[in-house]
Design brief:
The complex is a heterodimer.
Chain A: H1 10-17, H2 22-28, H3 33-41, H4 43-52, E1 56-61, E2 70-74, H5 76-79, E3 92-95, E4 102-104, E5 113-115, E6 119-125, E7 128-133, E8 140-144, E9 149-152, H6 158-161, E10 164-174, E11 179-190, E12 199-208, E13 215-216, E14 232-235, E15 238-242, E16 252-256, E17 261-265, H7 273-277, E18 282-287, E19 290-295, E20 300-305, E21 314-320, H8 323-326, E22 334-339, E23 345-349, E24 353-358, E25 363-368, E26 375-381, H9 388-392, E27 400-401
Antiparallel strand pairs in A: 1-2, 1-26, 2-3, 4-5, 6-7, 7-8, 8-9, 9-27, 10-11, 11-12, 12-13, 14-15, 15-16, 16-17, 18-19, 19-20, 20-21, 22-23, 23-24, 24-25
Helix pairs in contact in A: 1-4
Chain B: E1 15-19, E2 25-29, H1 30-33, H2 37-44, E3 51-53, H3 59-78, H4 81-94, H5 99-112, H6 116-130, H7 135-142, H8 150-159
Parallel strand pairs in B: 1-3
Antiparallel strand pairs in B: 1-2
Classes of the chains: A mainly beta, B mainly alpha.
Chain lengths: 413, 165
């Protein structure tokens, strides 16, 4: 009788499979029943996988008016390996569940109507992914694409919502409370924008996922221009935004999900006045666990903040000659995504292409997603096998399963 | 794969005697044997005198386990770049063994003897043999029997097309 790999004790099989890239784990599920059941049957699997997990990317195509329902997973280690050339192959990983059409009341200064299920990929926190409808009536949900589960986030107060315009929603986590929270920034207006005496005020609300309310918080957004489209990044328990024109008095502002307060990050002390004014060629990201800023204004620099909040810890870590590739300097902005295993830096260029920069060889490699698609959103995402109820640690939420749909429908969405 | 020669001149090095399940005797330095948590426990409990039988492991596999442990123990003890390189070189050799039989036996031995570094190494080797392969190729590499019905297999593949390159 021949011994086979599947005769190995489950803990060894777990050691093997949990170290694989996410895609390989799912491919191996088709090999035999043992591999198929391993992630769900072995409790040790989840934690071991999490300790090895490398960051991937979730991609939504289309723009904010027509975001696609299909969400795609890109494993940067695989996508950037040379055998695949310059095109990132994408296959839809899951499709956003369909919500019933909802009617909402008119909001005085901005139109109302029928909400047509246009969910936009917002951000990802510890393996959970957050989506919301980006119109006046915003439903939102949190999902785990690996377990294919989702929960709908509590709706706002209908009464009050008629007077509010949501500027943005962000999912975050508070370590001390061990809870996921959603931050909502909204504005209220008196009068119409073109009228004399028009006043617009900005407010913040927090919802602890699983709780029964949205709570107004005392802290007010420090900038009037933080919204869905502001360059933002999640770093530990904070969401950070890079402030762009017309807000030139702030550099980076952040919200701490634990203290529920806003804060400000000052630019490097050596930054000249010119550089703080023009932010169109700048972007923020997280590299190696540190907040960083790319600045392509004059030359392409990557500044890394070695100690969060300490402006003296800003270090110009990389100075990149972007003309080395084509002879002409390349216009940014470049959004830093992650370090790859080989030390290369993965960035998103002009929201459309992935670019892989090798700091040692000083080489750029551009990869596109296929010409026909408009890239809507690219979100860093680290998968988790932990079921949603366990992640969220709440009992009263209804966990639903994303329906299995034809991944290649004739029409999308 | 050649055995390393013990040329370090340390006096009074205690040795442990192990016997594989096919009767081959191995004399191992205590520091190397201690890399196996199973044997280390016996050393601490004071019952490591005499010949320790290793019923689950054959001589061919035990030889490789011992070589791995010896090199790593030496690298730790001497903190010399040369010793470390020797350990890594042998590990690289181990990563290349055939998946179906040798790697399998090596993993079982590493698990039974509880040699953490070897378990991680062999898990990595097995993982490398799985990466980038189709389910058919995975089964071939490891001699796994397909116990899924064609319908089941089809369904799993359809659910996870995104994972195929």
């Amino acid at each position: 009788m021949e011994d086979s790999l599947t005769d190995l004790p489950p803990n060894i099989l777990t050691e093997i499979l949990s170290r694989l890239p996410i895609k390989s784990i799912f491919v191996s599920k088709s090999a035999c029943k043992t591999f198929l059941d391993l992630p769900s049957s072995n409790p040790y699997f989840n934690s071991l996988y999490s300790s090895h997990a490398t960051q991937c990317l979730l991609v939504q195509f289309g723009d904010m008016y027509k975001p696609t329902r299909s969400i795609h997973l890109v494993d940067p280690e695989i996508a950037t390996s040379s055998r695949y050339g310059e095109r990132v192959k994408v296959n839809p990983m899951f499709r956003i569940p369909k919500y019933p059409v909802k009617y909402f009341r008119r909001f005085r200064a901005y139109g109302g109507g029928r909400n047509k299920n246009k969910f936009v990929l917002l951000n990802s926190c510890k393996g959970l992914v957050y989506f919301a409808e980006q119109t006046v009536c915003e439903r939102s949900f949190i999902c785990n694409p690996i377990t294919r589960e989702y929960v709908t986030v509590l709706d706002y107060d209908e009464e009050k919502n008629g007077q509010q315009l949501t500027m943005g929603l962000w999912l975050g986590f508070s370590e001390a409370e061990n809870k996921y929270k959603v931050l909502r920034i909204y504005c209220t207006a008196i009068g119409r924008p073109w009228e004399v005496g028009f006043v617009q005020e900005f407010w913040a609300q927090v919802h602890v996922v699983g709780s029964s309310s949205w709570r107004d918080i005392e802290a007010r957004p420090p900038s009037r221009y933080i919204d869905w489209d502001t360059c933002s990044v999640l770093l530990n328990e904070t969401v950070c935004w890079l402030c762009r024109y017309p807000d030139i008095s702030n550099f980076i502002v952040f919200f701490d999900f634990e203290t529920e307060k806003f804060g400000e990050i000052l630019p490097p002390p050596s930054y000249g006045v010119d550089q703080t004014l023009n932010r169109q060629s700048m972007n923020i990201g997280v590299l190696g666990g540190n907040l960083c800023v790319t600045d392509d204004t004059f030359h392409f620099d990557i500044w890394v903040m070695k100690e969060f909040g300490n402006r003296d810890s800003w270090t110009k870590e990389f100075v990149i000659d972007s003309a080395v590739h084509t002879g002409e300097p390349i216009d940014g902005p470049f959004q830093p995504l992650q370090f790859l295993k080989n030390g290369k830096i993965l960035m998103l260029w002009n929201c459309d292409n992935l670019v892989c920069y090798d700091p040692k060889e000083k080489e750029f490699r551009f990869l596109d997603f296929g010409g026909v698609r408009t890239v809507g959103k690219v979100v860093p995402y680290t998968p988790t096998f932990v079921p949603l109820k366990e992640s969220l640690m709440v009992d009263n939420l209804v966990v639903q399963n994303m329906p299995r749909e034809d991944p290649y429908p004739s029409e999308d969405p | 794969m050649s055995l390393s020669s013990s040329t370090d001149s340390e006096s009074e090095k205690k040795t442990i005697v192990l016997m594989s399940n096919d009767g081959v005797i191995f004399t191992v330095e205590e520091s190397a044997a201690a890399k196996s948590q199973t044997i280390n426990q016996m050393i601490e409990d004071g019952c490591s005198d005499g010949t320790i039988p290793i019923p689950n492991v054959d001589s061919k596999t035990l030889e490789m386990v011992i070589e791995h442990c010896t090199r790593h123990a030496k690298a730790e003890r001497m903190a010399e770049a040369e010793a470390k390189a020797a350990a890594e070189e042998y590990d690289a050799e181990l990563m290349k063994v055939d998946a179906k039989k040798t790697l399998f036996h090596l993993m079982m031995a590493a698990n039974y003897l509880n040699v953490h570094s070897l378990l991680q190494l062999t898990a990595l080797a097995a993982g490398n043999a799985i990466k980038g392969k189709t389910p058919d190729q995975i089964r071939d590499t490891f001699g796994i029997i397909n116990d899924l019905t064609p319908e089941e297999e089809d369904q799993i593949r359809k659910d996870n097309t995104w994972s195929y390159e």
